[in-house]
Design goal:
The two termini are about 15 Å apart. This protein has five helices and 24 strands. α3 (about 280-285) links the parallel β23 and β24. By secondary structure, the protein is mainly β. The relative contact order is 0.09.
């Protein structure tokens, strides 16, 4: 595989990351990035790209949904990304992806990363923003608000991409992990920002497609934050067939005892699938979940291995 290097100080083949991506051949490339803050919007639409941060590497931009485009219309959620992945077999290691546009009240939704591809693996990465930090594509079949899907995948075919996040850190507040992918989060931390509100946010808002076997799985993850006690929900359904399973997760005191919210859609309670197994921490001590949230047995929880959830028909093994 071709090796490409990027460094801000001019000591590598390229000074910016997008130029390195653009130079990658069709058969793929390994891009090594030297320490630095790379203030740019990056798009990856070539398959088989492996991106490795060497030292402290941050990719940051500041677009938000409320920002006006040249024609005077708002940018919208799905154009606000700092980093976009739209091609299969992408890997990133030791990189921070940040959107520093600000909190949702001022900036609107502000994606640190928009990931819409199959066989994607992030290891030891950080995703930082406020509202809508990480979008795990694809988009749902149809928008609720006309024009709400304006962005790079508005008219693209919807694929059930598989995504693996290993030992990663996420910071946000409202629906900061959302989308339709089959996504497995292993050993990750989810930090909820304090908005000073009675309800400070919702960690996840899946939009799992009807008939899709798996949605989100969180295994051995930590849910932390600087919010007031019982001011954050773990889950609410962006679409009515949303799926999220929490295995052996540590929940901070900021997690509400109900944990799961129906987003004012009582009809979703019979179609979503939400489940927990052996949650611990202050946020789990007095848990009082709705009756539509499942408590898994050890045998049921054992079905949610990384290999089973992400393997698919090609036996993909992101750790292999």
């Amino acid at each position: 595989m071709k090796i490409i290097t990027a460094a801000q100080d001019g000591s590598a083949m390229f000074q910016d990351i997008q130029s390195a991506v653009d130079a990658a051949p069709a058969e793929g490339a390994e891009i090594h990035i030297k320490s630095g803050v790379y203030r740019q919007k990056v798009t990856v639409e070539k398959p088989r790209i492996r991106m490795i941060g060497e030292g402290d590497v941050k990719i940051v931009w500041n677009d938000g949904a409320k920002k006006l485009l040249p024609d005077g219309t708002p940018m919208g959620t799905f154009n606000s990304y700092t980093f976009f992945v739209g091609a299969s077999d992408f890997t990133a290691e030791n990189i921070t992806f940040e959107n520093d546009a600000g909190c949702g009240k001022q900036a609107g939704q502000a994606l640190a990363a928009y990931v819409d591809a199959d066989r994607v693996h992030f290891r030891n990465c950080r995703f930082l923003s406020w509202q809508d930090t990480l979008f795990t594509g694809p988009l749902p079949p149809k928008e609720i608000i006309p024009g709400g899907f304006k962005g790079p995948r508005q008219y693209a075919p919807r694929i059930n991409g598989r995504q693996y996040y290993e030992n990663c850190y996420f910071r946000g507040d409202i629906d900061f992990i959302f989308g339709s992918a089959t996504a497995y989060f292993s050993g990750c931390e989810f930090y909820s920002n304090d908005l000073g509100e009675k309800i400070n946010g919702f960690v996840t808002a899946p939009s799992t497609a009807e008939g899709q076997e798996y949605g989100y799985v969180f295994a051995d993850c930590r849910f932390t934050g600087d919010c007031a006690p019982e001011s954050v929900y773990l889950f609410r359904p962006w679409r009515n067939f949303a799926k999220a399973v929490f295995l052996r997760c540590q929940l901070g005191a900021h997690i509400r005892k109900e944990g799961f919210d129906n987003w004012d859609k009582p009809e979703s309670e019979s179609t979503v699938f939400c489940a927990e197994f052996e949650s611990t921490g202050e946020g789990a001590k007095n848990a009082s979940r709705p009756d539509w949230v499942h408590s898994l047995t050890a045998q049921e929880a054992a079905q949610y291995t990384r290999e089973r959830v992400l393997g698919g028909t090609d036996d993909w093994n992101p750790a292999g």
